[in-house]
Each structure stands twice: as C-alpha cells, then as structure tokens.
Amino acid sequence: MCTSITLASKEGNVFFGRTMDFAAGMFGEDPGSPMSIVTIPAGAQVASQLNPWTAKYAAMGVGSTGTVCLMDGVNDQGLAGDLQVLMECEHASASDLQQRNLTAVLGEEFVTFVLTHFASVAEIKAHINEYGLLDQPLTQGNESVETPLHFTFADTTNSAVVLEPTDNGAFKVYDSIGVMTNSPEYNWHLTNIRNYISLDKFDPKTTKKVSERVSLDPIEAGTGYGMFGLPGDYTSPSRFVRSTFLANNLDPFTADNGINQLYSVFRTAMVPRGLERASQDDPLSDCTRYWSGYDLNKKEMYVQTCRGLTFSAKKLNPQSQEVTYTDIEIDNLVKWVD
Amino acid sequence: MCTSITLASKEGNVFFGRTMDFAAGMFGEDPGSPMSIVTIPAGAQVASQLNPWTAKYAAMGVGSTGTVCLMDGVNDQGLAGDLQVLMECEHASASDLQQRNLTAVLGEEFVTFVLTHFASVAEIKAHINEYGLLDQPLTQGNESVETPLHFTFADTTNSAVVLEPTDNGAFKVYDSIGVMTNSPEYNWHLTNIRNYISLDKFDPKTTKKVSERVSLDPIEAGTGYGMFGLPGDYTSPSRFVRSTFLANNLDPFTADNGINQLYSVFRTAMVPRGLERASQDDPLSDCTRYWSGYDLNKKEMYVQTCRGLTFSAKKLNPQSQEVTYTDIEIDNLVKWVD
Amino acid sequence: MCTSITLASKEGNVFFGRTMDFAAGMFGEDPGSPMSIVTIPAGAQVASQLNPWTAKYAAMGVGSTGTVCLMDGVNDQGLAGDLQVLMECEHASASDLQQRNLTAVLGEEFVTFVLTHFASVAEIKAHINEYGLLDQPLTQGNESVETPLHFTFADTTNSAVVLEPTDNGAFKVYDSIGVMTNSPEYNWHLTNIRNYISLDKFDPKTTKKVSERVSLDPIEAGTGYGMFGLPGDYTSPSRFVRSTFLANNLDPFTADNGINQLYSVFRTAMVPRGLERASQDDPLSDCTRYWSGYDLNKKEMYVQTCRGLTFSAKKLNPQSQEVTYTDIEIDNLVKWVD
Amino acid sequence: MCTSITLASKEGNVFFGRTMDFAAGMFGEDPGSPMSIVTIPAGAQVASQLNPWTAKYAAMGVGSTGTVCLMDGVNDQGLAGDLQVLMECEHASASDLQQRNLTAVLGEEFVTFVLTHFASVAEIKAHINEYGLLDQPLTQGNESVETPLHFTFADTTNSAVVLEPTDNGAFKVYDSIGVMTNSPEYNWHLTNIRNYISLDKFDPKTTKKVSERVSLDPIEAGTGYGMFGLPGDYTSPSRFVRSTFLANNLDPFTADNGINQLYSVFRTAMVPRGLERASQDDPLSDCTRYWSGYDLNKKEMYVQTCRGLTFSAKKLNPQSQEVTYTDIEIDNLVKWVD
C-alpha cells in the first residue's frame, strides 16, 4: 500500500515524502488512472464533487489527471501531506454528520481540501473536529469508488499529525512520529514499535562470551547486527517499523542533502513489481507506482515513477492562474559522463 | 558491506549491479580514497603492483582514481563482475603458490585481471584453477592494505559464478544464483535460503480459519503477507535472503526496463547513512557509498552515489587509447517539469 | 510475566491453565510470598481487605498462603480463571466508583470474588458492568502493593472472557480466543495475531521452484517450515502469538488426554530461570514460578513448580467446611521402573 | 525431528537429554515400533545385524523393544549420547570401507556400539577415525530401513562431541557446544548462531530515546526483550538457536536441580502434536514422542512420553546379567495432595 515519512535537517528544514503502492497502473504500465502533477493556485475554484470551494492557499502535488484529487502535495505555506488506505476508515451519512454539526468532506478530496484551507498542523488540529467523512463515492468516468483512507500532514515547524476517520466519520487525531503506513489504526503501530526497543544502530563488533561453552564472533566484521530482528516484508506494520527505525537512526544531515536523505530512507519501503500478487492468474501486482518527496521550506517536489530512474521536479509557482496538469517523466534520465 | 545481483530480461539481456557499502568516504563525504569510472582500453598496459599485463579486452567500471583496481566493471565481451569483502578469504605465500603451480594474483586487482583476460564465465571456470591469491598487501599512498575478498562474474548468457579464495589462496568455485553478499562462505548462504522455503509472492487475501475458535483476517487488504518472515536488517545473510527473494519474484520485464528493474531490487539492500555504527564516538558509519548497474549487452554502466540522486552513465568506448578516469556526478540531477 | 490458555477436548470437556512468571520466589527458591493451594468452601466468609463476603460457590486454586487471594482457580460450577499483570490497568477512587454506581473490588481479590460469586462466563458478562477496581493497595505484612491486573475466565461450555479494568477502573470485556498474556491491551493482541496469517501447520515437503534460477529444497525433510516466522522470545506479544498458534493447531484429543495436551502447549510459554534479568547484579530473574492446569469438568487442578518435576494434584472437595491451605510439592516425583 | 542438550551444574555434574521427534508412534499413540528402556550389561553379547560384539561397558537407554538399537543412552562410565536424523549422512559400501581400512558399523546400532565400547569423549575422539557407516539397511520385521543419522556424546568431564558421517561414511568430528539438532551439518549451525550475537539475557527496562522524535517504553515492564529476534518455529536451525541461547543463559544451578533445569530448557524444543503435518489427509504429525534426560554422574535416566505427564526413572544396574526391556509409563503420575 503506502508509506510516508517526515525528516528534518540539522537546520530544521523539513522534508516529507510518500510511496504510492497500488495494484493498478498510474503511468501507463498497467490499466488505471494516469497521474500528473496538479497545481491549484490560490484563489482558484476547486471543483469538488460535493461543495466546490475557493482555494485560500496554492497547492501542488500528485493527482489524477483532470481532477483536483491530490494523493499528496504541498501548499505555499509549507504544509505537506498525503492520503493512504486505512481499512478501519468509517464514513457517515449526510444527515448523521449534520446532526453532529460536522461539515461533510470527501476522503478522496481531503488532502486538497486541507492544503487549500490550512497553513499549518496547528491550524489543522484547531479545526479538524469540525469535519466528517461523507458516505458518498467519488465518481470517475463510469466508476464510483469510495476508498477507506487516513491522512497525515507535516509543516515547516516539523510538527506532524495523523488524522484517522475512525470515529463514525469524525477524525481521531494523533501526533505523528514522522511515519505513517496503512492498517491497523495508528495507536496500534505506536504500541507495536515498542516491541523493537532492543534494536540499535550500534553493532556488536567483538567476541561475545555467552557462557563458558559458547562465545560468538560477529560474521562479516560486525555490521548490521544492531538491527537484527527488524522485519523485512512489505506488510503495513513491517514497513512502519522499518521506516521508523531507519528514519530515526540517520546521521544528521544538512538541508541541501535533504531530498537525498529522505529518498535513502524510503528505499526500504519501496515494493518491487511482482512481489505481492493475489494469484498466479492475476496480471496485477501491488507495487510502488511512484515516490514523491517534498521540500517544505522550498515548496519543491520530486517524483520518481516505477517506470524509470528519472526524478521529475517542480517548484510551486505562486503566480499560476489556473489549475494545471504537468506530466511526470517516466524514462531513465541519467547524466552521461565522458 | 556489499550486495551484487544479476537479472535477465524476457529477451535474455543480462543486467548486473552491486552496492558498495563501506565505512570510509568515496566521494568526499568522509575521509577515504576517491572513486571514478576507470576505463582500460584493449591493448593497454595494466600497471599491476605485482606483474603488469596487457589487457586483452577493454573494460570499465568503478575504481580508485589513479589506480587500475576496479571494484566492479564490465568488459567489451559483456562480462561483468565485482569484488566484495569475505572474512574467510585466504592468501598464500609466493613460494607456496609456486609449489602448487598457481599464478599469483592480487585480490584488489582481480576484477581488473579477470575482465581484461576473459570473455565469459565459461572461460573463467576453465582457467580459475590456475590462479591463487598472493599474500601481499596493496600499497596506496603511505598505506598498505590487504583486504579479504571474494568475487562474482556474470556474462550475456546469464551464466554467473562466485569465486572464493578459501582454499589456501586457491579458489572455490560456485554456480551463482544471481546474488552475492559477504561472509560467511557461499555454500552457507545457499543452505540458508532454504530456511525460507515457505515464503511466497502470493498473498493470503481472505479469512483464514485456524480452528473453531480462531479465524484471521488479513490486515490492510492482504498485501505482503506472502513474504512474512523475511529478515529486514542489513547483515550479510539477511541482505542475501532479501535480495534473492526479491530478484527471483520479480515480474518478467523487457530489456529497456532492465536497469530500472535492477535498481528496484537493489533498494532493499542499500544501507542508509547512520544505521551501522561502531560506537557513539565513531564519526563513520558503514553505509552504501554507491550503487552501480551494468547493462551487459550494451556495455553501459550507471552509478548513483550516496551524495545525490543523479545516475551517472557511461558506455564503454572501444576506441579509447589509454586508461582514463571519469568523474562520477554527486549532485541531484532531476528533470524540472513545468 | 504470565500466559493462560483454554482448550477443549473432542467431547467438549474444557481445560484451563496458566503460567505464573514473576521476579520473586513462591516456593522458597527466592525471597517472596509462599504459595499454597487455597480451598474456599461454599458458605465460607471471605476475609476481604475491603468488604468481606460469603462464598456462594466453593473454589480452589493457587494463592498466597494465609490469604484468600487466588492467582488462579476453579469453582464447583466449573468456572476457572486467573489474574495477570496488565500495565494499562486503571484504578478509581471510592467516590468516583460510587458516583458511577460501581461496586468497588480489589484487583488482587478479584479472581476469588468472581469464582465465589458466579457460575459461568455468561453470568460474569451479565454483571461485570456493576463493578470497578478500587485504588486501594493490598496490605501483606508490612507491605502495601497495588498491582496492575487483568483477568480471564472460562467455563465448561468453552466460553471464555477477558476482563480489563482499562476504563477508569471499570471493565472492558473481550471474548477470549483462548489465550491471554500481558500488556498491551487485549484488542492489540487480537490485531497482532492477524500479522501471522500466513503461518500454517502444513509443511512444504518438496522442492519449491522460485524462478528459473532458484529452486529450494526443504532442509531436514521438511518439518516445521509452516510455522516459519513465529517469534521465539518471551515478551508478552510473542508468547501470545506462539500460544495461539500452538493451541489452535493441536490435533483433536480426548478428555483423558486433556491435562497432558494442555501442558504440551504451555511448554512454549514457560520461561527458564536466568533468561530475563534486569542486570548483572540483580539476583532475581523473571521466570515461570509455577504452571497450573485445571480440568473444569472434573474440578481438578494440577500444579508444577519451578523447583521440580512433580505435578501436585487436587480435586475440589465440596464437603470442606473452612478455608484450607494445602502444600504444593516441589521435588521430583518420578515413577521408578525396574 | 530431534534436539539434544548438555548442561553442567555448579559442581560440574553433567546432564544430557534429548527429544525424540518423529512421525510414527512409539508408545501406542500411532502405528510404529514400541520403545522400552533397554539395559545391556557389561559382558553381554550384543546381537548386531552386522557383527555381534561383547559389551565392554554396561549401558541403558531408550530403544526399540526387542532390539539392541539405542536411540539414546548412558553407560556405566558416565558417557551418554544419542542419534538423530541428518539428511547429509553418507554410507559407504563394504569394499569401499575395507579399502580405507575402516571398520563397518550400522548407524542405527552406533549409539549402542559407542556406549558399550568407550568410556569417554576423549576415547571416542581417539578412535572414531577407525570407523565408517556401512550402506546396509536395518531389518525390522518385514521392513528394511536405512536412516540418515548423526550422533553426539557427552561425558562427566563436560566434554561433548558431534559425529557426522558426511565424509563418504567416515566421520567428521566437531567439538559440541552442548546442543545438537538436525540438518544441515554442524558447522553450518555453528556459523548460524553467530547471527544472533546481539541477543541477551538482560532486558531493556527503561525508556529508550531513539531520536528527538521517538522514545520507546518497554511494554509490560520490560521482560524478554533481550531475546527479541529469537526464532519460534520448530525447524532444525530454529530449535538449535533457541536451545543454545536458553541453555547458555540459565542461572547456575546445583546438581540436585539438574534434571529439572535440563527439562526447563527442553520445553522450548518439544513439539506439540498436530503442529507439523504433511497434509490434511495425513493422520500422522511429526511431534515429540518422548523426552529423555540423563544424570551422567548418577547413571540415572528419566523419560516423559507424549502420552502423559509421568516421568519414568531408572538407575543403571551394574549387577544385571542380561539384556532387559523395561516398560516406560505413559499415564499421568501426579502427587495427590490433600
């Protein structure tokens, strides 16, 4: 499914990224909705399938071409975030939300909604209890889909929040530890990582005397033993644990190295194609369709697709006047050296 | 330490790559010997610290700037390979090798030696029993170092071999399964992967009834469970297992997607900076300093360093006349899209 | 800490057992309160430190010698259960409980309270919302201790319940899957076992072809691979997972084999002495101090201590007139055969 | 399959035990050859299917009723040992053994052969290179079976050896670390346990600060985390690792507690019935059929079968005149306390 990670540099610059894992194509590699970089200028009318609104802040991110549904994005205030699948997500009916004085929103539009409405995590926290997820599928072409979702947002203060619509459509709010994956609910993961308390970035390098009879020497000069016990599969809890331990044991880095360091942590979460299949006959595999990384201070984004090595990059243009769709490169951009 | 992987496309084109994990810098990020792309033309005199030789085949690869010691490389016949640390490596004295009718070679020069002497894995196998590792340190500046090493080579027939100098300097030869990491010896790893026989690329997707009392539903829609039990740490055996299962469960791919698919498997083996430290006070961390990938059919190579997202690329130039050193880019080459 | 397991035979007879893991002695092996088999007849006055009550049902079980605090036990209706440490346990003040119309009970006396008040799990469920844990330490000698606890009970219908005082002293009620260990809360464990959905009692016995390049043969004739990935440590989540998978993959058994089969599952949960230490200087180790097993239909109990192989056994005597304390044997009772 | 473990008490008394895991019955629970305690007096003629011999030392142990094939046993010199399945075992032809000046022995009779010929591990080591396994099946009733086997022996000096007939029927000899299970070969296991170098008997008990963002508290008061990463399944390598870490992290114990401590370590290796099946239709499960434990100094043995809690015990009787078969109790011997 998906993983998102937030990192801060020595200077306090904040970097946010996510993988998009899915069993449908996004760049022509399999049937599915094509993705672009979607830019929504401040003041633009956002064509919601529920109640259109005017963007207070400009935002850009990866979204379905032709729609305003961002999968992830950043706004001109340096707030960034994404949506991911959460099986425990709940929706409520319009009347139910109304009775509870909750403004109805669509999950698929919620990243866009937040980025075009709020400037910071603090603002989100101050207002999130006014909203609830409506039980209304999103229409795309001939299809109507309602995806169970949760959300995370981070800002330039390195504050980060996880929002889970598990209270009958209303949101449970968690302080983020900088990582979000998929089910189960966030508090389960927060407990789960405590099981790994004995893992460490320091490696046993010398002979360990276990008893009179048994002494153990590290194999291969003692590298990597500190993380022994880290799970290597791609289920949601395992990606959560790996991402948390990698992100939080990185060496300090400077801002100019931020996107590179962010990507270095994500490698462990990126799912190769073919590894997760439903059955022999299923042509589709759940794999990482793209990675996107955001520099929150510079309002820049970087995207690498499953189709090539190229990193497409874009800086948010505050002068833009209308919603635009920019193609993401899928080939192998490399630097030929001679 | 290091990981190497060989993949073949649907058409049978072969791709070979390696990570270089080390506790010293290679691109200015930490003290250490700088690396370049080294090109050795056919007919060139190779300045060995033992017995200089004339290159029969042209070769290029990553090597210490100013030396002819390739860490990994490809030759004009489409043979590629690398060297990696193996603690169980043995060296023999000159007299000992002479008595056994073995030609002395230096481990650090052995990748270069093989790529400039042989055209295929079959040729290597036919001649490897004529050679033995000499117990003579390599001199670099003021330092003399003898590194315990083993080697792997692959060719365009998708044949691959592992060479381990564990027989008192002579080589034990193993058919490669397309993956090599570090200690212990190769046959240990070949047994170890059999422990993981129950892992699969197919995921349980539906409720599993364990007993009258216990039924289990997959969390998060059932992705990734087939690989449950895969180790996630970066020790040599764990990297071997992960790389083997990822490389061998990939969807079939076409040659034009080869470098991208090769890289997609390597992500699991690339060690972020900071994760493997000797102690709190040690400024160095054992991490992936670079990744290199080779297209054996096209005689092209791609290198990504730990310092940036850029992939430097080079095609072997058969017209080259002398040994050359080409800089590897360390910045973040991206495609700005607007 | 502790593990409890409930099993049913083919005929539907029910067996309940628990390990008592603790860092203090219970049978003279280390400093600590000595344990006996405590029998409380129906009609006896139970000397609570809060409000003494009259036992409606006779009960027996393991308890601190001289007290009426059962750690585990069975009553004359075939209801059995135990208490275990749960760090998330909450207590409430007397006034708070009164305001909520909850009858105050002491956690340490709660197993005794339930066994002498209720005949079945259904009865417990019907009344548990009338009670809450009082924030009042238990006095034993010169010490006052308040232990964070949770509880499980099973009856002869093979119904089982877990009671966790995590709602400000009031109880959250969970249908038991037949296993309880320690923290975190029960619903966390119920989610956690779903991570292990790919584990199976059936073993891969033949060569597995992973790819053209890799085929794996089972080592040692293919036994045990179905459970590959099962955690082997003694933390609470790992004991929960192991106990659940072992208990629910047992072959069907007849009632006369019940105690033996119950014990066979418990072996995986019993902690040897020395394995869990706070530090080099700490003379105490958290280990299994005793195992007790109950035949709910026969109202019999069996106890094995950490000090010897002997299983002490006792049948509940309904004719008993007063609270009695019976010594548990600590030696090695064996059958000498000649 | 099987596990054997050797422990020494504070005083230096030595205890040896083994589990017998098998997919056939041994005590009437499934079809199979019934087992007894077999006693062979010094001076007795041992009815080998190859070359009968005279016992130099008296021995007793568990064996097939009516045969002299011991699965495990102890002799009057305090030497004890067992046989277990090893898939890599090799047999040689009579002529081949003869050419190599090796005395032919049958694997199934080899424990008996060693116990009735040798007084110590040192003696075994001094003579083991004189023997080789003959490629001749053992005849039992209408059946002829040749089982691939390896062997371990321990003596009262706490010396222990592993003998593996992997050199074309001749034995490779390993110093034992006190544990033996099944395939692969012993040196593979000796390397494998080094992967677990970071495991420890000391538990993290306090909050661990991983980074500014992430601090981890132990769940359930910090018990068991030191062994996090220990594998929990019943494959041969996993049983080897668990047994090694448990046996070598035990608290020191006195000799009178030896059999009890030996058994406490074995619990982790004992396989419940039903957990390892070939298929749904296979009525047999590979499970622990019996456990036997030996006090080498007292020449006493203890056996617990899969059919009941009883420990049968026997002391080697040096006055015995002929080969005898003693029944092993299968019921639930307990101490009724009142």
Describe the structure.
The structure is a homotetramer of 338-residue chains. With 338 residues, chain A is an alpha+beta fold. The first copy, chain A, has one domain: Penicillin V Acylase, Chain A (4-Layer Sandwich), CATH 3.60.60. Chain A contains six helices and 23 strands. In chain A, the strands form six sheets. The first copy, chain A, has an eight-stranded antiparallel beta sheet with strand order 15-14-13-8-7-6-3-22. Chain A has a six-stranded antiparallel beta sheet with strand order 16-1-2-19-20-21, with helices on one face. A two-stranded antiparallel ribbon of chain A has the order 4-5. The longest helix of chain A is centred in the C-terminal third of the chain and has 12 residues, at 236-247. Chain A starts with a strand and ends with a strand. The mean pLDDT of chain A is 95. At the A-B interface, helix 5, helix 6, strand 21 and strand 23 of A face helix 5, helix 6, strand 21 and strand 23 of B. Chains A, B, C, D: Residues 2-316 form the Choloylglycine hydrolase/NAAA C-terminal domain. Chains A, B, C, D: One of its GO terms (molecular function) is hydrolase activity. Chains A, B, C, D: Keywords: Hydrolase.
> What is CATH's topology name of chain A?
Penicillin V Acylase, Chain A
Number of helices of chain A: 6
Number of beta strands of chain A: 23
Architecture of chain A, CATH level 2?
4-Layer Sandwich
